[in-house]
Amino acid sequence: MKMAFSNKWKCALLFAVTLSLIFTAACASKPKAETITPNQESQKNTSNLDSEKEVIQTEQGQENSGQTNRLDNTGKKIAFVTFANPDSQEWQKLAENAAFRVLKEAGYDTENTEFKIIKEDDATKVGEVTKEIMQFSPDLALVINSSIAIPLAKSLEGAPFPVVIPSCREAGVIDSSGVAAKNVTGVNFTPVDILAKAANLVSVVDPSIPKKTVFIIGKYAPAKYPKEMVESQLKAAGVELKAYEVPETEEELYSVIEKYENDPEIKWVIYVGNFVRLKDGTVGNLTDALTYLRENSKKINIALVDSMVKYGAFGGVTVDLTALAEQQTEIAVRLLNGEDIKSIKIEDPKKVYIYYNKMTADRIGVELPLQAIESAYRVYTDYEGNYIGN
User: Fold this and answer.
1) Where exactly does CATH 3.40.50.2300 map onto the chain?
2) DSSP tally for the chain: helices H, then strands E
3) Alpha-carbon distance 202 to 247, whole Å?
4) Helices marked H in 337-387 — which ranges?
């Protein structure tokens, strides 16, 4: 009898453990999400949403009459799609904080507005993110995460609420008059002439360099540069696109770099290549790739991400992603305040900067003329982040 009782409880325990494992696996596959209702901020688990709390933290002593109206419940619900781990990349945290700051300054924060905050980078989970948002039934969805913005915009197209993304042109959601075709609006991730600016950056340094280039972009890059768009922009700038490469893994990336390093036709390369799958299976902004680039390449590598110039690319034309998040969120505020989506022109980024790296220029034997230095927002002097300029 005692043996039977013991076995019975062993079975029960095993069943409970199995259920627990199934539940844990199911939870792990879901996007990280949290709903914050007005005045709930002080009740949140302090281990969650640390980066948001820096911006939306409840301030003490806000009962004075000058702030009473701002704290009245707006009755609005905002789905906020951000990065899976914004603390891991400085630009992600800055962009997220900028968006929350603009919302708060406009009177929309967790004290008076209900938020569904979703942290997800994996584009294969768009269906789950869409379901989370639709069940929340927001007044507006603000997607600052460029990694997932395009597929999510397509998934939410036609939803009964506006969706604001940072990559409208790239997502193909603009009509012929320059406004939202349906319910998706926001800003464009890249200027329509960004590749012409990249070509000009090279011409300023040395006008004799042939107008022929290669475009390398990692498969998992957050910004999308379709081949047709790249080819069209370069052609308009009088530049021939010899090849468009999309490496998926670290090994493929290094192989592509080596391939064009040995191509005498190519003197300069447009490089957005460090978003690839790493050896451990994860996807990341691969700093090692920049080390490899500066140790193995004598080409003029032009980046479209400023951190790549900081760590080794020759130069770059880059969008200020913090300013872009602000610009995008300002549009979200206009919609929350009742403006018609069809009255909002979709714009290019307002802040686009030129960068050079003097150490790389010296290493590959290219002199930076005064005109190049004067046109630059910033000139890095090493690979440690030191610079002259802004």
Assistant:
1) 33-39+71-188+323-343, 194-320+350-389
2) 15, 16
3) 24
4) 358-364, 370-375
pLDDT digits (tens, 9 = 90+) for 225-236: 889 989 999 999
In angstroms, the CA 321 to CA 144 distance is 10
Query: For residue 319, how far is the Cα from the chain centroid?
Result: 11
Task: Choose the weakest-confidence range: 1-5, 85-89, 245-249, 287-291.
Answer: 1-5
The pair phi, psi for residue 124, each rounded to 5°, is -75, -10
Residue 69 has pLDDT above 50, yes or no: no
Distances (CA, A) of 185 to 88, 114, 146, 346, 357: 28, 21, 14, 7, 35
Q: Which of 4-8, 112-116, 299-303 has the lowest mean pLDDT?
A: 4-8
Higher pLDDT, 22 or 371: 371
What's the rounded Cα separation, in Å, for the pair 156 and 183?
A: 8
What is the CATH topology of the domain spanning 33-39+71-188+323-343? Rossmann fold (3.40.50)
Residue whose C-alpha is closest to residue 242's, from 208, 267, 205, 207: 267
What CATH architecture does domain 194-320+350-389 belong to? 3-Layer(aba) Sandwich (3.40)
- Report the percentage of the chain scoring pLDDT > 70: 82
CA gap 53, 44 in Å, rounded = 10
Residue 356 reports pLDDT greater than 90:
yes
Query: By the 8 A CB rule, do 157 and 184 touch?
Result: yes
Please answer whether residues 347 and 121 qualify as being in contact, where contact means their C-beta atoms are separated by less than 8 angstroms. no
Per-residue pLDDT averaged across 85-103, rounded? 88
Find all residues with CB under 8 Å of 300, minimum gap 6, and list them.
202, 205, 209, 267, 268, 269, 314, 315, 364, 366
d(CA 216, CA 97): 30
Helices (H), the chain: 2-29, 50-56, 65-68, 90-105, 126-136, 146-156, 168-171, 194-205, 227-236, 250-261, 287-296, 306-310, 321-336, 358-364, 370-375
DSSP letter assigned to residue 349: -
Instruction: Please give the Cα distance from 151 to 149 (Å, whole number).
Output: 6
Phi and psi for 331 in degrees, rounded to 5?
-70, -40
**Tokens at 293, concatenated:** 């680039």
- What is residue 57's DSSP assignment? P
Which distant-in-sequence residues (6+ apart) come within 8 Å of 167 by Cβ?
146, 149, 150, 153, 186, 188, 189, 223, 224
